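Morning!

As promised:
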Amino acid sequence: MVVGSRHGGTREMGEWVVDGLRQGGIDADLRDAEDSPGPEGYDIAVVGGAVYAARWVENVREWTRTHSDALRAMPCWIFSSGPVTGPPFPADEESVQFGRLLEWTDAREHRCFPGRIDSPNLRPREKAMCLTLRVAECDYRPKDEIVDWARAIAREATGPTPP
Ligand SMILES: Cc1cc2nc3c(=O)[nH]c(=O)nc-3n(C[C@H](O)[C@H](O)[C@H](O)COP(=O)(O)O)c2cc1C
């Protein structure tokens, strides 16, 4: 599980994904895109990115682009941590501009989960943007849904291979 986070909310979602994968029998670990981990030695990949200005944060976008050959060669799932204006939340494809993410990963699935605004830790420009957009401190991250999603990934990844 590789994650790109700015304020830690998406990283914690990555921890929940790892929990779900482990519950499903997968020996998973969590790596930060900014540490440039290699994908070698892994059988599947789950990649998650925090969304700012409709795009994944730069470090995980760059990591995904750099390792696109390896990611396309293994089962891959991706998730975004985005919407903070709901509920109701916008549809996945309205929240994230994928750019070439789907092409780089050949992802089996992309899920966009609602995110978190950690107001005290925002940068001054981020605080100003939240004021302008009238977005308040919040935490909409659906922990149980994320763990369930990861368990479903584990089932698919470890299920019987077709003849
Ligand atoms: C300045 C700013 C811009 C944001 N832009 C978007 C956006 O364009 N689309 C979106 O869905 N979420 C947006 N968000 C919400 C973040 O994606 C959400 O808070 C996310 O969970 C943060 O993850 P992190 O704690 O890992 O950095 C924005 C948040 C901030 C503070």
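The two ends are 28 Å apart (CA to CA).

Hope this helps with the figure draft.
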